[in-house]
Amino acid sequence: MSTRAQSWRVGDLATRFALEVRGDPDREISGVATLALAGPEHLSFLSNPHYRGQMQSSRAGVVVLRADDAALREGSALVARDPYVAYAHIAALFEPALLATPGIHASAVIDVTADVAASASIGPFCVIEAGAVVEDGAVLGPGCIVGADCVVGAGSRLVARVTLVTRVRLGRRVLVHPGAVIGSDGFGLAFERDHWIKVPQLGGVRIGDDCEIGANCTIDRGALEDTVLEEDVRLDNQIQIAHNVFIGAHTAMAGCSAVAGSARIGRYCLIGGAAGILGHLSVADRVTVTAMSLVTHSITAAGEYSSGTPIQENRQWRRNAARFRHLDELARRLKALEKDSAP
């Protein structure tokens, strides 16, 4: 394990990320922290106005903020159009960087027909099956399985215990967190008289460059065509992507959300936690689906969409739930009253 540079001048950070310095450009920063916990050696940030009060008492050596908030800061500051984005870039300088050693661990099992680049790093107890390809600089952590006819793209990293089942292609610089399963059977069944028949899943999974797959996600391979994630798709933990789903580039999905078979999600979408999208629907580009919502029909225009009943005190909710059963009756009565009162 190796770490990146641990000390940066404020002026150097400003130059590197095209930020404006307010205050002392020679101040040294050796880490990042929240406004509440930061000390003089730390950089922090203010992007949510809710935390302006914390900045007044913060001991942070420098704060990344918007120009509108600069007057609130007495000490050093870095002015950014988007403080959170600027903070993300700066914080990466202080993240421990894993420098994997190229080579194959003695406990790994690799089929003779697999193609593993000499610059790849294959960790303990990995299995690479027939016809699989691991490209330059890829890293497989402990216990990963790369199944038959799978491809791990250049610079990609499977953290640990990741399973690529079959016909999975990862693009370049894909990050897959522990426990993810990609390329498992889609849930394809046909009912014949009195029992189910399994429908063969003959497609694969294609994941574009710079995607990130969270821990314990499952992405099923397609029945005939492939399940597809375009470039820069970001999945949080424990997400289910069913067979033949298509997810457009730069879409992000929060934890425990799920997409049923053959749904199509556009580009630059945001899917909230535990949201669900039913099968064979389409979601337009730049759609936000808020947490716990259920998408039951196609969405054809960009915007923010929600469903569900907000939480209430239990007795109030029970009364309202009882009234739900009478909504159709009430609607009919209202329609009749409007008709009778019409001139």
Q: What would you say this structure looks like, in words?
A:
With 343 residues, the chain is an alpha/beta fold. Among the domains are: 8-94, MurE/MurF, N-terminal domain (Udp-n-acetylmuramoylalanyl-d-glutamate--2,6- Diaminopimelate Ligase, Chain: A, domain 1, 3-Layer(aba) Sandwich); 165-305, Hexapeptide repeat proteins (UDP N-Acetylglucosamine Acyltransferase, domain 1). The chain is built from 5 helices and 39 strands. A hairpin with a 2-residue loop joins strand 22 and strand 23. The radius of gyration is 26 Å and the shape is flat.
Q: Which tags fit this structure?
A:
39 strands, alpha/beta, ten-stranded parallel β-sheet, eleven-stranded parallel β-sheet, UDP N-Acetylglucosamine Acyltransferase, domain 1, Udp-n-acetylmuramoylalanyl-d-glutamate--2,6- Diaminopimelate Ligase, Chain: A, domain 1, single chain, 343 residues, flat
Spans of at least 5 consecutive residues whose pLDDT stays below 50 are none
- Based on Cα principal axes, name the global outline: flat
Mean pLDDT: 95
**What's the total number of strands?**
39
Alpha carbon gap, first and last residue: 82 Å
Brief write-up:
The protein has five helices and 39 strands.
